[in-house]
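Deviations from the work plan: none for this task. Representative record:
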Amino acid sequence: MSKFKKKTSKGLKAIGTASLPDIVFMLLFFFMVTTVMRDTSLKVMIKVPSATEIKKLEKKSLVSYIYVGRPQTGLQKIYGTEPRIQLNDQFASSDDIRDFISSEREQMEESEQKQMTVSLKIDEKTKMLIVNSIKTELRKASALKINYSSRKRVSENPA
Amino acid sequence: MPRPLQEINAGSMADIAFLLLIFFLVATTMDVDSGLSRLLPPMPEENQVDEDTQIKERNVFVVLINKDDLLFVEKEVVDIDQLKNLTKDFFLNPLDKPNLSEKRSMEVDLFGNVMVSKGVISLQNDIGTSYGKYIAVQNELTAAVSEMRNTVCMQKFGRKFDDLNPLIETENRVIEAVKKVIPMAISEAEPKQIGGK
């Protein structure tokens, strides 16, 4: 009997929380280091196609993004449901791409401008009409390194 | 008389750290950007002679996706699963068939004299083709080229092409050589409006 009573009489011992800040700080530093800030808020819905032969994009500072997809549900009343191009934070037309590229270029260091890559984040249901006009504009702006953003597909056979 | 140093209460430090932690958790995007890399051809200069007319028809591998996302290879409907093998056959042409690509002998660093295919893939699409299908086809073509490169590299150097590191100079030399033996020749024609929208 006394075996069991002994414990209750002592009361619950509190777990030491002194090391909790250390653990939290560790997590905090991990996230601070791995974080890339979201610099644009997406106004279009994008589900990028899947592929097997993908390569990772190095050096984020050299990458500019072009988004194409249908406007998000809340914005469909104003912008319609047809796929649109988004540059930075706003909708744009393909004519704006050249200005966009040159302004992105100016933000880079001169030595790195040649390595500039444009990542095309395009919804898989988009028609090639838009994609082709973007590609033509990129060629005119001589931003020739592009990357068709896609997800990793695990299975061998395409869906 | 100096006052005894008072210790700062560190009990709330955890709370502050938690606050920061949650902020970074929310603001973080973990996804690594990846995709198919391509190099677009530069815009043709104004008075440039069109060189496309000089390529023989047998050396052009026509891949066409129509507005209904149907895939045609050399004017025949094929399933996307077959595309990779068809592409490889076209370039390697092991039996020297007259309807597949020609080869010419070329002097390549590390390889010496090798037969290099003259073939070019011509990828055409309609303005109504969906981007998903286009990427699926691009992916298969890339897969075909990288498989051929891997085979060549394995035969010659006993290593896979994908495992080579371009930052190491000797390996980079191998990469450049293999790229010359198996070039990635995809030419994209301006899209035609074949069917209605």
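Helices of chain A lie at 2-10, 20-34, 76-79, 97-106, 128-140.
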